Predict the 3D structure of the following.
Amino acid sequence: MPKTPLQDRTVLLVVAAAMVALILVAGGVRLFEGEPAAVAAEQPPRAAVEPSAPAPAEPPQPTEPAEPPPTPDVTLPPAGPGGVLPHGGRRIFDGNRFLVAYYGTGGTGALGVLGENRPEVMHQRLLRAAAPFRRPGQPVTPVYELIVTIADATPGPDGDYNHDIDRETVERYVRAAHDRGALLLLDIQPGRADFKAVAKRWAWALRYPNVGLALDPEWRMHRGEVPARVIGSVTAAEVNRTSAWLSRLVADQRLPEKLFVLHQFRTDMIEDIPLVRRRLGLALVQHVDGFGTPAQKLATFHTVERASKFQMGFKLFYDEDTRRMGPREVHRIRPQVRFVSFQ
């Protein structure tokens, strides 16, 4: 039977209604699918909410070795009384030990290699530099020689031509040395101040069993002298006052033996050196810092060394030395060298 116009209109309305319904349903599905995506970013991963089949593993991708994370700002290890050295003993050179140090200050490589990166990164570099110095029956101890008081070309507010690095930096090295079995050596460039007066500012750090003290007479100025314009000097009397104070600290805190290092590359840098006294609780080291060719360095060493009184140290310069001496050459030096630092 042929359709009437009314039937045609009815069919059209039904079709139109169905199309509208489909559009609305489709629109609703899109809105519903879009909402969970925004919420999912605030939710824990699905696997943490309900179990699901594990995703197929992706093949491992090659990566660069990660640097150790920075040392967190945490409570420092306990300081004194008592304690032992990193190797477990109470004397620095027990067991025929050999010391290898990186020298510098925190946060910059301008004064030495130690500050070129974070202490935990530099520790790994130090271990690589120290390993070739190991010999049968002669283990190696790593050392961080950290300049904590730096000589200045201007007098500063106290008129003493020096400044201390911030305590937080020193604390990071205290923590790093403690955690990694290293010695920490606090190096002082006092300007016009007295070595003992400056050393006492670091008494809090020297109470740690693995922390020692180094005096650098090159930067000990006298009246009218300015750092970097002249090479400084110190009297044996001032060295003895400083070592006496440190020896008492060791005794009072019942600490193990401490490194006590004197840097030198000219005979007049330590006046009356035969009068420098040995002290209970201190391992005295005369550290010879001359640079140049091996022949020049050895000439400096033999001119200033006083091995009858000190253990001997020797510095190797990455930039200033000409054909830097290697471990075999250093071990052949006589009198015997027991402590090498890299700058």
Q: What stands out?
A: DSSP finds nine helices and eleven strands in the chain. The CA atoms of residues 312 and 337 lie 5 Å apart.
